[in-house]
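thread: overnight batch results

M.L. [08:02]
morning all. the overnight job finished for the chain we discussed friday. pasting input first so we're all looking at the same thing
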Amino acid sequence: MKTDKENDMKILMINKFLHPNGGSETYIFKLGECLKSMGYEVEYFGMEHEGRIVGNSVDAYTSDMDFHGGSKLSKLTYPIKTIYSAQARKQIRKVLEHFSPDVCHLNNFNYQLTPSIILEIVKWRKEHSKKCKIIFTAHDYQLVCPNHMCRNGDENCEKCLSGSFINCTKGRCIHGSLAKSFIGTLEAGFWKLNGAYKYIDKMVCCSRFMKEKLDTNPVFAEKTIALHNFIDKIEKSDVKKEDYVLYFGRFSEEKGVDTLLSVCKELKDIRFIFAGTGPMEETISGISNVENVGFKTGDELTKLISKARFTIYPSQWYENCPFSVMESQMYSTPVIGADIGGIPELISDKVSGELFESGNKLELKEKILKLWEDRELLNKYTENCKNQKFDTVEMYTEKLLKIYR
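M.L. [08:03]
and the structure it wrote out:
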């Protein structure tokens, strides 16, 4: 039961993109909707964009920064703007003055909005003696790794976790570019010296694995909280399984697609369906027992997941809290997942699925064969999936409100 004071809580949701673009946007939209349905006031701050679907009452946003286009002059000024943004400070101040939030909930803000907005929130609340909490949901490893993935080329990398961001430049970690990697190093180093992140009250990590990585920074270690992402409520129903194994997601090297394809070639009697898109699309299309059905959403994807004997999530990078792993189990479909990042936190090994050593082709092949041939074991995992529980957005929001308060 909320008190009148709690019911008056105002939340400013901050994210660089305010249009459908990826996981963090889905997160802020659904979270905002849920908070509003509970009676809280919610506004949004980020970049202006023709596809923007949420906003604030004073229409204050930063200019859209397109790193892949724009004029030659704008490209020359991007290195400075990606580190510090006077415009972002000016625009968010307008929202702060008018909306007067009790919570500023940061999401993805580096490079486009920059951490300079944190300084403006701190300045505003000090001038107004306002008790406004700054909460941050980490959607990636940006605060401890300039390229945000803890990955360099085709290898996982933790060199910058010590705070030595020059390793990003040495390894050309951002798109293989020396210039971009140097800018990433400057951005990370500048804000480390500036100390803006010390003003964040709590950092929500979507996996215990991510929390461990952020905790390598002693400033963050006392602020982090592990809280798995939410998933839409799915009504359990018995669906007749069909004879295929499913991979759905991005067709790329870091997702372990190359490893999976090598195994598929050796298991010619098993039918594999791949649903998605990405740079390895042509490679997938050239294998006889692999059917590429392209990118699927909605009912089409639901049916593919529900009817699969099991799905495979073979990732080779530090996944955070992959929605695909949760979604499979919610549709009563077991998962064979790589034991990397936050994946093991979502699969009850030998209960609702199985784990294998990331990148280990032999072990993956053995796991696939075992589940394909042992119907009794597969049926057991399928039944156990029906008991797997993940937070709905309502359950997640209740937990988040405790952090807000």
